[in-house]
Amino acid sequence: MSDQLVVLLHLCDSLFPIGSFAHSDGLETATASGVIQQPADLASWMETVVDVTLAQCDGPAVREAWSAFREGDVAGLQRLNAELYAMRPATAAREAGRAMGSRLLKTWVSIRPDSPLRSVIGDQTSFLLPVAFGIVCAASEIGDRQAIEAFMYTRLAAVVSAAMRLMPLGQHDGHVLLARFLARVPDTALRVLQARQSPQSFAPAMDVAAMSQQYTYSRLFRS
Question: What are the chain's domains?
C-alpha cells in the first residue's frame, strides 16, 4: 500500500500539471456578484460541493470510471463520460472538465510509461476530470474508496485555493474551513460506494454562476 500512497500523493499534489488553478467552477461569479463575501458564505457553497457535486455526481463518476477501467469496459467509460458531459449546463465548465481530464491522462502516460492505462483506453484522452481520475487510480492499483476520497480532497482544496484569491480569506481561516469539510470526506465516500447510484446533479445556483462566468468583469479564472 505504501507504493500506492506515494502515487496518490503525487496525483493529488497541487503541483501536478492539470491546470486546475485556472478554474473556479463559478466561484468567481459568486464572489464578484456579492453572493459570497465572507467565510460563512463560502461554507454554504462548500456544503453544496460536498452534498451535491461530490456526493451525487463526481464521486459516483469516479467510482464508475474506476470499475469500468478494471473491467476493461471502454464503451462503459465513454458512455459515463457522455452522460457526465451532458449534466454540465455551462459550456465553460464542460470544456474545463474535459481539458483537465485530458491533460491528466496525457501527463500520466508520459511520466509513467509502464502504466497499463494505454493498454486499456489506447490514445483516448478526451475524458472529463472525474472519469480520468478514476481511470488513473484504477490503473495505479489504488482502491476505489481511496480514489473517491482523494478526488474529493482535490476539489475541496481547489475551492479554498480559489477563494483565497477571490475574497478576504487568509491561509489560516482557509485551512480551518478546509479541515472542517475534509472531516466529512470519509463518510461521504463510503456512502458513494454503498449507494451505488449513477451520477446525478441538481445545483441550479452553482450552474447559473458557472454559466455567468464569461460576463464577470476583470476575470482571474477561465471558469
Answer: 37-202 (1.10.4190.10)
